[in-house]
tRNA (guanine-N(7)-)-methyltransferase
Amino acid sequence: MTVGQQRAWDRHWERWGREVKALPAGPVRFDEWFDREAPLLLEIGSGMGETTSRLVAAAPGLNYVAVEVYKPGLAQLLLRAEALGVENLRVLRGDAVDLLTDHVEPGSLAGVRIFFPDPWPKKKHHKRRLVQPEFVRLVAMRLRPGGTLHLATDWEEYAEQMLEVCSAEPLLRNRFDGWAPRPDWRPVTKFEQRAVEEDRISHDLMFERVELT
C-alpha cells in the first residue's frame, strides 16, 4: 500500500472495517455497527473506491457497506471517504459469497450493486464469473421486497449473461424492458471510460425483489 493508503487504513479500519473471515458466526448487526437504523445497501467489488466513495457521499441516508478482497483498494476507498467527510460507510474485506451466505440476514438489504465485475472474457474462464444462477438466487434472497439488484458491465456477452440469469430468477423482476437507462448518478469509472475509448458499450441492469404468491 502507499503511505497515504496505510495511514487511512490505520486511522479508520478499526472503526469502519472488518475481515469477513473474522466475523463471529451469524448475521452482522449492521444497525449497531453504524449506530443507527437506515436502509442497508451492499456494494460488491468496490475496486479502488473512486465510484463508491462518491456514491456514499451522495446518499447520507443509506448505511452503505462495501465488500472487496483487495486490501489496497479498500484502503484507497477509506482515504477517499475521509476526504469527502462521509460517516455512513463500512467496509468488509473478503469473499462476498461467504458474507451473504453466513452473515447477512434474508430480506435485509435495500439494494445490491455490482459495477463492472471481472468479465473473465476467455470462454474457459466463464465459470469464474460472479453473476451465475446460484449467486443471483443468494442475492435475491437477501434483498427485502422492493429491493434492487443493480448490475453494470461493458462486456456485451457478459451483459447478455447477466440479463439471462437475472431474468430466470423467480424472486426478481426487471424494472425495465431489457437494459436499464444509464443512471446519471452513477459516476463514470476509469474502466467505463476505457470502454468508451475502445468502443465498448456499457449496459446497466436493474432488477427488483418480488414476493412470491
The helical segments are 3-16, 30-34, 50-58, 71-84, 96-103, 133-142, 156-167, 190-197. The two ends are 50 Å apart (CA to CA). The mean pLDDT is 95.
